[in-house]
Amino acid sequence: MYKNFKLIDRVVFGRGSFYQLGDILEAQRVGKDSSVVFLVDNVFENSELIDRLPINKNDKLILADTSSEPTTYYVDELTKMVKDYEIGMSVSVVGIGGGTTMDLSKAVSLMLTNEGSSADYQGWDLIKNPAVYHLGIPTLSGTGAEVSRTTVLTGPVKKLGINSDYTVFNQIVLDPDLIENAPINQRFYTAMDTYVHNVEALTGTFINAFARAYGEKSYDLCKEIFLTDIDRREADEKLMMASMFGGLSIAYSQVGVCHALSYGLSYVLKTRHGVSNCIVFDQLEEFYKDYVVEFKEIVDRNGFEIPKGVTKGCTDQDFEKMIDISMLLVPLWENALGKDWKLIITRDKLRELFQKM
Fold first, then answer.
1. Three-class SS of residue 56?
2. Which of 80, 72, 71 lies closest to 62, judged by CA?
3. What CA–CA distances, in Å, run from 58 to 27, 110, 288, 357?
4. DSSP category for residue 58
5. DSSP secondary structure string, 236-256?
6. Computed from CA positions of residues 279, 338, 202, 167, in that sequence, does the dihedral angle turn out positive or negative?
7. How far apart are CA 267 and CA 279, in angstroms?
8. Beta bridge mates, 61
9. If DSSP codes are grouped into helix, strand and coil, which group holds residue 133?
């Protein structure tokens, strides 16, 4: 059976397209009981962006804490907050921010229609009921969260996404103006997530012509953005497309060794996803030789330095937890190394890799 791939229903792209948000939401404002919850990265508190939101009297604004990776606990807290508001019966969710906000808004949209804790749904196709209407507006580009069918969450015992067709946004608004002033470090590390997505998709065993078409274009855009003297405004527009295409590529393929290890590393050390990917990928010449060489060139050319020695102070218990988390990600290992991946990836091998970081 071939995957019946769920795409986003609608996409609008272009500088200034954020101003179309009010018109887009009008189709969801049916009846007096309709309302919109705007879930916005709290970095935008007291900003012009907040002033531009088309907030009606029944709507609610929530400033999301994005100081750490999204957790099941915080998703449950936000979901309860939305349910406790005296809002209409017909609720839509608009997420505005980076990958963390994208994942939080997708998760809350799912949990408004599915009982229990979000931790109950960490895995593949466990969600039973469709999410409420949800719309994503990224203010950082690279994670691909704006197009993916997963919302990656750190739970009580594991870091694993809620992977479901119902997770996918109904609409995204891609406005390059919104990523123009992103902090340079965040921009770089988030963009490198896209670079790694492409490498893992293009070298994986799940690859097909559909995934390759998106992955190759995204990969070429990444090289143009970070290995040529491209104008920053043009680079932002292309980075937005690279993120989207990279996300579409892995949706019909899968990520691989770097992401499997990154989940374990970030679960224990609480490092941000993009930074974790860079720490891990920097040590993966054994698996992605030429790409790691190119990655190091990108890092040097753009004046960054990847953290090293981050696991030096880790205990045996820390390493065991990293290994446990990484070993759970079976589809990632199968994509990277095939069905017999366990012949290559042992607990001792994973410990050796983590100790290099």
1. coil
2. 80
3. 15, 21, 51, 50
4. T
5. HHHHHHHHHHHHHHHHTS---
6. negative
7. 14
8. 38
9. coil
Q: Which long-range contacts (CB under 8 A, 24 or more apart) does 129-133 make?
A: 129/166, 130/166, 131/106, 131/166, 131/167, 132/91, 132/92, 132/93, 133/28, 133/92, 133/93, 133/109, 133/170
Q: Tokens 């009921």 appear where?
A: 129
- Could you read off the pLDDT of 219-262 as tens digits, one per residue? 999 999 999 999 999 999 999 999 999 999 988 899 999 999 99
Question: Taking the complete model, does pTM exceed 0.85, yes or no?
Answer: yes
Closest CA to 75 of 128, 133, 120: 120
Q: Ramachandran region of residue 303, left (φ > 0), alpha (ψ -120 to 50) or beta?
A: left
20, with CB counted inside 10 A (0-12, 13-18, 19+), is middle
Strands 150-154 and 159-163: antiparallel
Task: From 99, 29, 31, select the one nearest 247 (Cα to Cα).
Answer: 99
Which two three-digit tokens encode residue 134?
């949800």
Q: Are 133 and 170 in contact (CB under 8 A)?
A: yes
User: What ranges in the chain are assigned the alpha helix state H?
Assistant: 21-26, 48-51, 72-84, 99-111, 184-202, 209-227, 232-251, 257-269, 273-281, 285-301, 316-327, 330-337, 347-355
Distance, in Å, from the CA atom of 257 to the CA atom of 331, rounded to the nearest integer, reads 10
For the residues of 137-200, what is the DSSP string, one character each? Answer: EESS-SS-TTT-SEEEEE-SS-EEEEE-GGGS-SEEEE-GGGGTT--HHHHHHHHHHHHHHHHH
Angstrom distance (rounded) from CA 6 to CA 149: 8
User: 292 and 281 in contact (C-beta within 8 Å)?
Assistant: yes
**Contacts of 77-80 spanning 24+ positions with Cβ under 8 A:** 78/39, 78/104, 78/108, 79/108, 79/111, 79/112, 79/118
Please, what's the b/e burial string for 33-46 (b: 16 or more CB within 10 A of its CB; e: otherwise)?
Answer: ebbbbbbbbebbee
Query: pLDDT class for 4, splitting at 50, 70, 90?
Result: confident
Q: In the prediction, which pLDDT does 87 show?
A: 65
Residue among 239, 102, 228, 230 at smallest CA distance from 182: 239
